[in-house]
Amino acid sequence: MSIYAEVIHETKPEIIVEIGTKFGGSALFFQDLLDLNGGGKVITIDIKEQVENKDPRIEYVLGNSISKDVVRHIKRSTRRKRTMLVIDGNHHRGQVIRELRRYRGIVTPGCYAVVEDCYIDRGKYGPWYAKEQFLKENDIFEQTDRHKKFVIGVCREGWLKRI
């Protein structure tokens, strides 16, 4: 959470697109950080409605993150906006690589695409493998070592910076 606060303060995104709303806690956290750093908007996507008390500052998108309609909506909403991406939905390798491919263009140079849960208690996990494949396919993102600042975290090796 501290690294997110630092990154948002440093890069000043106008929009954070989050894939994987669940109960909405991280979307609210991101929105509060944006407000503390001059403003902005969170757009959060989930396939299932689970947020009981929606915050009016946040846009909640219901649907599959890789569907044409959802991708089109996100691309329209982020056009010409300084944008950060957080992937924390379905953790299967195939889903994560499709999300990275479809949304890579919305991430503004200097901002981050964050792939959550690259590791679990048993080691490398689906998002890690997707992230590695994605980095081999393109040269507009670089692996960073932001995760090394703290001993623990769910984004180990998941901080990708758009060059």
Structural summary, described in words:
There is one protein chain. This protein has one domain: 3-Layer(aba) Sandwich (Rossmann fold). The protein is built from five helices and nine strands. The radius of gyration is 14 Å and the shape is globular. It is of the alpha/beta class. The strands form two sheets. Strands 3-2-1-4-5-9-8 form a seven-stranded mixed β-sheet, sandwiched between helices. A two-stranded antiparallel ribbon has the order 6-7.
Q: What topology, given as strand order, has the largest sheet?
A: 3-2-1-4-5-9-8
What is the rounded Rg? 14 Å
For the sheet with most strands, the description reads: 7 strands, mixed
Quaternary: single chain
What is the number of beta strands? 9
Summed up, the domain count is 1
Coarse shape? globular
Task: Give a concise summary.
The chain is 34% helix and 21% strand. It contains five helices and nine strands. β6 and β7 form a beta hairpin.
What is the fold's blueprint, element by element?
Blueprint: H1 2-11, E1 15-19, H2 25-36, E2 41-46, E3 59-62, H3 68-78, E4 83-87, H4 93-103, E5 112-115, E6 119-120, E7 123-124, H5 126-137, E8 141-143, E9 159-162
Parallel strand pairs: 1-2, 1-4, 2-3, 4-5
Antiparallel strand pairs: 5-9, 6-7, 8-9
